[in-house]
Amino acid sequence: MVVLAVGAHPDDIEFQCAGTLAKYVQRGDKVFLAISTDGGAGSSGPSKEETARTREQEARRSAAILGAELIWLGYPDEFLYETEVVRLRYIELVRQTRPDVIITHDPQDDYHPDHLTTGQLLWNTRVMAAAVTIETASPRWEKIPDLYYMDTLAGIHFRPNDYVDITSTIDVKRKMISQHASQIAFMKERYGMTMVEFMEICASFRGLQANVRYAECFRRSVTYPASYAKVLP
What we know:
The chain is of the alpha/beta class. The protein has a single domain, classed as LmbE-like (Rossmann fold, 3-Layer(aba) Sandwich). Helix content is 43%, strand content 17%. The chain contains 7 helices and 7 strands. A 7-stranded mixed sheet has the order 3-2-1-4-5-7-6, with helices on both faces. Strand 4, helix 4 and strand 5 form a beta-alpha-beta unit. The model has no long low-confidence stretch (mean pLDDT 94).
């Protein structure tokens, strides 16, 4: 099986679904990570350009720990908009990776506009990627992938219908998040806790709901066409 996880910023995927992705990798599935923006706004110190370079390097180190292929889309952080050109790039992303499953942001109730736009782009383009008359560099992908939304930050407004026990892969998740050193310092400065500490609180809370030590949760898109197949590990 092929899995495409798409986050708005470097570290979004690690924070919300790295434990699940590690379980996919362990069972032999192919995993792609795609990041919409360059993360250039995620700093109170260096320039946007320097921050973006640092965050791409961090993202690539994180993907290497997972053994996943990283696709860096590089749109400006905080300024991701759906235009015809952008929509075509996401159609090409789906065709390029040819996924059975897409995991991305909830396009309704997330807190950040880049998250909302990323989720909406994937909802829009997963069906368009099968269209014969829309041309991109890669051939059409005949399959309509199953679409899952990952948790929102701190779980606010998110109503999951699937949980994945990540107790066995929490260490992989910790290691991946720890590659984002610039954001660990940034979050400590802003919120008084590290990203790993924040993640562990959220994973413990979702684990409590699922009656396991640590969990991640998801919401299936059940709009047509949907297989309703349970494809999470």
